[in-house]
Design a protein that fits this description.
8-stranded mixed β-sheet, alpha+beta, 5-stranded mixed barrel
Length: about 600
Amino acid sequence: MHAYRTHTCGQLRAADAGRTARLSGWVHSKRDHGGLLFIDLRDHYGLTQIVFAAGSPVFAAADALRPESVVTVTGEVVRREPGTVNPKLPTGEVELRGAALVVQSAAEVLPMQVAGEEKFPDDLRLTYRYLDLRRERVHRNMMLRAGVIASIRRRMIDAGFTEFQTPILTASSPEGARDFLVPARLHPGKFYALPQAPQQFKQLLMVAGFDRYFQIAPCFRDEASRADRSPGEFYQLDFEMSFVTQEDVFDTIEPVIAGVFEEFADGRSVTKPPFPRIPYEEAMLRYGSDKPDLRNPLLIADVTEHFAGSNFGLFARIAAGGGVVRAIPAPGTAANPRSFFDKLNDWAREQGAGGLGYIIFEADGAKGPIARNLEPTRAEAIRGACGVQPGDAVFFAAGPRDTTPKFAGSVRAKLGADLGLIGSGEFRFCWVTDFPMYELNEETGKIDFSHNPFSMPQGGMEALNSQDPLTIKAFQYDIVCNGIELSSGAIRNHRPDIMIRAFEIAGYTEADVEARFGGMLSAFRYGAPPHGGSAPGIDRIVMLLAEEPNIREVITFPLNQQGEDLLMGAPAEIPPARWKELHLKPDLPPKARQ
C-alpha cells in the first residue's frame, strides 16, 4: 500500500465499500457525537468523512487534532446509514472507518478559519494567503483560472498561432503607465524596465516572419489598484497576426473568446460571434461610455437641438454655449413618488453635477419642472427621440461637451441598476471601434495620443497631413464584456514615415522617435508586413466568469491596495552594501527616513 494514499479525498464511492483505503489530507472540521468522532478530511480533490469509534486505539490522537493538521488515515470504506448520506458531496454515500492514524504535520491555532464562509479582512487574508487559498471559493477560483488559461492556449494553437516568450528585462516604452525599473549593476546609472506589455517585441516577431504569435504574457505597471485592475502585475492573452485587416482580427479571436466563455459559462448565455461593432462616437452618445454594458437596455439620446432656443433657459444657454443635453429614459417611473426623483437629484450632486432634471410623460402630456417651462412641441420631440411612452420619465444630463456624455453614462448605469433592468446570467460582448487617434491634453492644451501610439491612422499619411488631428480616427478597437474592457488592440503602424509623422503631431521630434523606438523603426526599414492584434486580460476574463467583484479574488498571490505583498514582505529595504553594488544612493522623502 502506498505510504500516503490509495485514493484522493474526492474519489471514494459506494462501489468501494468493504475495501481498505488510505487517505491523506487536511483536517477540515471535527464533530464529536458522543462515542463517535467525525473528521472531514480534505485535499485538492474533495472531502471524505472519517469516523473514529471511542474504543479505537487512535481515538485520543484523532480527538487531539487541530483543524488544518495534515494526517494520513487508513481504514475500511463503509456505506453510510441511509439517513446520514450527504447528497452534496460526491463521496457522500460512504465514510472511512479510521483504524490507523499518522500525523504528518500538526497545525497551530489558526489565525483565520478555512472551513465555513466567514469573512475576514483583506490584509489578514493576504498575510496568510496560503490558508486563504485552501478555502473552497478561492480554491475554486484558482482552478477556474488554470482551466481558462489551458483552454485559451489550446484554442490559440488550434487557430494556427505559435507561442513565444518575450523578454522581461527590457527598455521603457510609453504604454500609459509608470514603469517598474530594475537597476543594471553592470551598467551604472542605467535601468531595465519590466514590460508594461510585450508591444514592440510582438511586432518585431511579425517583422521576423512568424505570422501568428501568442503568449500568456505577464505585464507590469506601477499604477494604483482598483476593482478590475491589480497593482503591479497582470496577465494577458497577447497575440499578433500578419497580413490582416481589422475584420480578420475580429473573426479570428471571437471564436476563441466566445468558446472560452461558453466552456465555463455554466448555463449562462454568451454572445455568439460576430460580436456587435459599436463606433466610439456612437458608444459615447448612446451609452455614455467606451465600455458599454449591453445588459442594460437603456439608450441615451442627444436632445440638444430640442432645447436650443427654447423657453427652458438653463439648457438653452448650455446649447448656445456649445454644450450638450443628453436624455436618459426611465421606463415605468412616472408614478414613482417624488422622493424617487429627489434621491436621484441628490445622487447627481454627490457626483459633482448641478442636479438631475427630468420630465414625466403621462397620457395627458409632459409634467414636471422642466416641462412647465418647455414648449409642448419640444417636449413631444424629446419623447419621440427617447422612444418613451406614457408612464415613463426622462432624465437629463447637460453641460460641457467633453464631460457630459460620461455623466449621462453614469446616470444610465444608475437607473439600470436601481430599476432592476440589468440582465443577469449573461455575458454580452461587443467591439468598440474607430477610436480617435489623438486627444487634447486638458492640462497642457497640447495634442496627445488617445490610445495606442503604434496604431495605424485611418487614411494613413494623407490623413495625418491634411486633417485636423482631433478628427483622425485610428484602426483601434476594444473588446468589452458586461461593461468591462477586456482588451485594447489595433492594426499597427508598420511604416516608418507614417510613424514619425504620427509622433510629430503629438510633439515628438524624429530624433525622439529614433531614440525611443530605434530598434523597431530599424526593423520596419527592412520590410515589415501589415499586422495587428490585441491582448485580452486573463485576470478580467476569470473575474467575470467567477462573478467576483474584485480582481484579487482570482489571482493566486495578489498585492494589496497599497501594492504590498504582505506574505513575502515586499517591497523591502535593501542593505547598504546592495546600494553600493548598484551604484545608487537613497534619497528618501522625510517620512520614509524616520
